[in-house]
């Protein structure tokens, strides 16, 4: 009797198992020959001298009518080890999976093979899921069966090939989906409303904005004011709003005359820029307002924009309940307005952008 891995077995059982292991390795070697021209191969990792010793022991047992070796001789017998490398069927770039196999002396009836999995193609998560499935499958074909068990390596090879192909296909689909989502995000048509407190050198400032929009493929509508009440410190009241709007509504001609009007040389205030274009381009535009010289300070020195506030930024396809989406526009246009809140609300209503706030709330970040 001989105790192996906690199981008491006869020497005859040990030799029978060893013979079955060697035969299974021989079959797998024929199925997956070790050739440089193929990605798939079965390689015996047990040293050649040890494999020769195992074959010699089995041959002696067979040639001498089942004469079994001594317990000391059996205890010195090595475990058979091998690696099966398979090309991932779904991959055209030479991706492979490698299953490392170690057979205990009690395989194939009392214990499953010990398995390890690695891959040049699949993620660690996929490898882990496949390995768990293979180990469970191997157990059902060996130790879960009757005392004779069943060889399982060929079944494991087939299962590994199927599962690696399915995992690679799923990973590729997920990758393509992520790429598409990333592309869609980058190309998302965005609307943004930027408030600039003032421009000291408005002519140069606006020309710079126009140059950026042209380079970035953005549509822009710029609204500017020379509101004297704000410049002199006079408080602009709602009564002033009402009077201004009433006067402007008397003449549509005067309303039209202000459109596409470049600001004069000098200072303008309460500038609103409505941008329309790809999200990435809008981001670049907003970045440039912070990092590039666009205006001059009170001493005439070049300066960057320090008082701009993004009041709104969202996909042009998104609108609040009950609101229409923002109309599509292109090109670069300027329009003067009187600086009143009500006039500004008329402008924002034209673009379905009243959601950026009303009254004093609009002036806050």
Descriptive report:
The protein is of the alpha+beta class. The chain has two domains: 2-179, Roll (Ubiquitin Conjugating Enzyme), CATH 3.10.110; 188-363, 2-Layer Sandwich (Alpha-Beta Plaits), CATH 3.30.70.100. It has eleven helices and 13 strands. It has helices at residues 11-31, 48-63, 71-75, 124-141, 153-186, 202-216, 228-232, 238-249, 252-257, 279-291, 341-350; strands spanning 2-4, 7-9, 41-44, 80-87, 96-103, 114-119, 189-199, 219-225, 268-278, 293-296, 302-304, 308-315, 332-336. The strands form four sheets. It has a five-stranded mixed β-sheet. Strands 3-4-5-6 form a four-stranded antiparallel β-sheet. A two-stranded antiparallel sheet has the order 1-2.
Number of domains: 2
Taking the sheet with the most strands, its summary is: 5 strands, mixed
Number of helices: 11
Mean pLDDT across every amino acid position = 79
Mind telling me the CATH class of the largest domain?
Answer: Alpha Beta
CATH-wise, what's the superfamily of the largest domain? Ubiquitin Conjugating Enzyme
Q: What's the order of the H and E elements?
A: EEHEHHEEEHHEHEHHHEHEEEEH
Instruction: List low-confidence stretches.
Output: 1-8, 228-238, 247-258, 358-365
Radius of gyration: 39 Å
The largest sheet has its strands arranged as: 12-7-9-8-13
Q: In the CATH scheme, what's the topology name of the largest domain? A: Ubiquitin Conjugating Enzyme
CATH architecture of the largest domain: Roll
* Structural class designation: alpha+beta
**How many E strands?**
13
